What we know:
By secondary structure, the chain is an alpha/beta fold. The protein has helices spanning about 20-30, 90-105, 175-180, 195-200, 230-240, 270-275, 280-285, 315-330, 330-350, 360-365, 390-395; strands at about 10-15, 35-40, 60-65, 90, 110-115, 115-125, 130-135, 150-160, 220-225, 245-250, 260, 265, 270, 380, 400-405. Among the domains are: about 10-140 and about 150-160, FAD/NAD(P)-binding domain, CATH 3.50.50; about 175-205 and about 215-260 and about 355-405, no CATH class. It has eleven helices and 15 strands. The strands form five sheets. It has a six-stranded mixed beta sheet, covered by helices on one side. A three-stranded parallel beta sheet has the order 9-10-15. Helix 8 (about 315-330) crosses helix 9 (about 330-350). The radius of gyration is 25 Å and the shape is globular. InterPro entries: FAD/NAD-bd_sf (IPR036188), FMO-like (IPR050346).
Amino acid sequence: MPDPTPLETVDLLIVGAGFHGLSLAATYTTTHPSASLLILDAAPSIGGVWARSRLYPGLKTNSQAGHFEFADYPMLGNPRYPEVRADEHIAGDSVRRYLEDYAAEKGLAGRVRCGRKVVEAEDLGKEGWVVSVEEVGEGEGDEEEEGREKRTQKIHARILVLATGLTSTPKPASSLLKCADADTSAFTGPIYHVRDFGKHCPSSPSPAATTTDEKKKKKKTILILSANKSAADCAHHHAHTLGNRVIWLIRPSGHGPCFLAPARVTPLKLLSEALITTRAVTFLNPCIWAAANPSSPSPSPSPSSPSSPSWWIPSFNHFERLCRTLLHRTPAGRALVRAFHAQLVQRKGVEEPLRLDAHPQTALLKPWHDAFWVGTGRGLLNWGAEGAPDVFELVRQGKIEVKVGEVV
């Protein structure tokens, strides 16, 4: 028997209240002011990965101020964010406030429903989509909330957009030890995923950590599994800010250490995030959309066409196509691309400036694949002000111990 409950109907349903979801919603409401729009997010607040529940001590953007904002609502120079300064990385809480302010500025705050997880989407063809949604708690509907009674709802949307980002839903951290068949009866400490780092970790040492009582002054031992940027953030915070002993475990069956690089590279101290957006550097990276570029050259007009006196002058798009062909479709070009990423980017841009080979422990943090293959598995050294130790220096100082091994 069909469900008699009438469906809530909207013109556009967006899943995800982060950067992309909010920017899409703002654009759509501008071009379709009378349309009905709804944004769903499993997190308890707006922001996506920058939501309040996702923040942790020391979290900053990889991008520097001026490179991480909407064009129609600047962050740098905005009196609402005096803490955001040029040539500095942006604190996570500033990004959180910025996204919440942007939603309010664009009239989107009332169209966002947080604590809603999409569990199913049924394609109705031209009729749109029927989306099944359930209310979730602070755990955002992960496996740790199994058994909890959840309210469900169905929404009919003419257009459905998934703006859920690159991150996935983590498995409960406790399942790791269950899979390893480990005896955890004697362990009473917390086990959690980095998503919940901010809920478990203090931003500064407790008063007991500064006392002269040696018993209270005893350091904790922290085990961190994985070697991505958030793992490096956790290791840095525990070792540098809290003074704990950190063991950093990297699985040989995984992807290896994250590609961490200085914010500025080359002897000219060029901003790396600006450098990689130059056309010359993009030529050295294959792109499946290059041939579909909207600015790709159209068929050449007839030489006799009076309206095209410069028909014989090659356009830049012809030059771009030629460059990509030579670099990615010839043996010599591919050798040049490999040398660029392996020698210039990785060795000269990362390994030598960071002195990774100067210490046996930091050598374990060298990326296992060159820069050509890192994709989004990268980050910048954004810890503290000039002169503050980065995670590699903490490893050299012995405050972080790096190990390569499996959990068994």
